[in-house]
Description:
The chain is of the alpha/beta class. It folds into two domains: 2-100, Nucleotidyltransferase, domain 5 (2-Layer Sandwich), CATH 3.30.420.40; 103-206, Nucleotidyltransferase, domain 5 (2-Layer Sandwich). The protein is 42% helix and 23% strand. It contains eight helices and nine strands. The strands form two sheets. A five-stranded mixed beta sheet has the order 3-2-1-4-5. Strands 8-7-6-9 form a four-stranded mixed beta sheet, with helices on both faces. Strand 2 and strand 3 form a beta hairpin. The radius of gyration is 18 Å and the shape is globular.
Amino acid sequence: MIDVGSNAIRLVVYGGPPRAPLAIYNEKARIALGEGVARNGRISQESMVEAVNALNRFHTITEAMGVGQLRAVATAATRTASNGADLIGRAAAIGLNLELLSGELEARAAAMGVLCDSPWVDGYVADLGGGSLELARVKGCDATPLCSLPLGTIPLSRRKDLSIKSLAREIEDGLTQARAAQLEPGLPLYLVGGSWRALGQLHILHSAQPLHFVKP
C-alpha cells in the first residue's frame, strides 16, 4: 500500500495470510501536501516534486521486493487541490496508478482497518488526518461511512478565528448536513490516524502518566 496523505506519503508492504497480514516494510516521507492546499488551494511546486520523487522511490522499492499486488491511494489534499489531477498524472508517468479516494471511501477504509483488527467492535470510527476528518459507524463486521468533514489538522491550525465553541458548531453543522447528526449515545469512539496518537501522547505527557506507548 502507498498512501498519499495530507501530512505524509507512506509505503507499507505486507506479507503473511490475508486475514492477519504482517507489515514487513514501512517507510514514510514527510511531505505536507496539505500545507499548500490550505494556503491557496494548490499543492505547491516544491511539494509536488518531492511527492513524485517519493512515489518513484516507493514504486522502485516494491518492484525490487517483488510485491505481487500494489495499491496506491490519495486522500484529502489531492482530492481538494486544484492541481490534484497533475499529481495523479505525474504518478501515471512513472508507472504508478494513483487512485483518488472520495471522503466516503476514505471513511470506509479507516473503519474496515479497525474491523480487520477487532471484528467484534460496535461504535464509531473517527479518522483524523492532515486534511479531513472522516466518521463511520462500525457494527456486525460492517462499516457505514457517515461523513467527511474538512476539519484536518492543517487547515484548522491556520484558522485564526477558531475556538472550542466554533469548532463544536462546525462539527454539529457538518454532521447535520451529512444526515449523521443522530448518533447513538454511549458507544465507543475508535480513533484512527497519527493526529490522534500525537494528541494521546501529549495528554500522557501533561497528565504525568507513566505510560510511554500509545497503541496505534
